[in-house]
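Reviewers of the previous submission asked for a worked example of the structure-prediction workflow described in the proposal, so we include one complete record here. The input consisted solely of the amino acid sequence. No template or homolog information was supplied to the procedure at any stage.
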Amino acid sequence: MNDRRPLHRLFGLSFIDFFHGTSVDVDVELDMSVKQQFLDVLLIRKGAGPIPRQLPDGLELLPFNLVTFKSYREALDTWALCELIGHFVSCRKRFSPSHDALLPDADFRLFAVSARFPKGLADEVTLTSISQGVYEVSVLARRIRVIVINELRPEENNAMLLLFSAREELLQYAQQHYVPHSQETSTLLYELFRAYSEDPDMPDKLKEFVRQSIDELLKGLPAEERLKGLPAEERLKGLSAEELVRALPPEIVEALARRFKANGSSSSRG
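From that input alone, the workflow returned the following C-alpha cells.
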C-alpha cells in the first residue's frame, strides 16, 4: 500500500466491518482542523438498543466515541492524548446544535488504542488498570480509556483488535477467530497482512508468518478479489481457466463467446 498511514486506514476499516449492520455509525480519518489533522475513528451510537455482538474489552460506548490508534511502530504519549482531547473539542462543536448549546460532556468518550504498552506514557502519568490490557488515564482533567492490544486476552470479542498486534500468537489467533461482518473483510485482511509483510522493521519471524497468512487467505478469496491490485503480468499466475473466466467482466466473456462461436462456424464451413 502506498498510503503513508496504511495501518491507520485499515484500523478504521476494521471498525467499519465490525459494526456493519448495527446501530453504530463509523467515520474514519475525520479531518478535524483547518490544517489537516485526522481523528482515526469516530463511533456514533444511534439509540440505546443493544449492539448485536460482544465488543472488544474496554470498548464501552457512549453516544460519541473518539478513537486514536498507535501501531506497533508508534508511541502513545501525552502529546497524542492532548491531540485526542483537541479532537474531542472540535467534535463536540461540530455535532452540537450551536456553540451556545453544546452536547453534554457525558455523551463523549475518548479511547487510545495502542499496539504495545506505552511505557513512556506510564513514566509520565498514572495508568490505572481496569482489566487485562485496559487502562484509564487522566490528561488535562479528561479521562481517557487506553487499550493495549498486545495485552488483550485471546478471545473472540478481541479478535478484531488483535489483527493489529505485532505478537505472532495474537495475530494468528485473530486470523483464525475474527468473524467477518461484511463482504469486504477478506480484502481488508489481505491488505493488512500485506502492509505488515512490506514493513522493513517487521521481525523476520513475524514476516514469515504473515507471508504464510497471505497465502492461506488468497486461497479462500474469489478469483476477482485475488486479481485486485496486481500488475497485469501477475494476474494470470495460479488461476485456472474457470477462475480466469469468472474474473473477467461479463461483456468481455460475451465478446469472447461470440468470437469463439464465429470461429467455430467458419471452421465447420471449411
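The beta strands are 24-31, 38-45, 64-70, 108-114, 128-131, 134-139, 142-148. We consider this example representative of the routine output the project will generate in years two and three.
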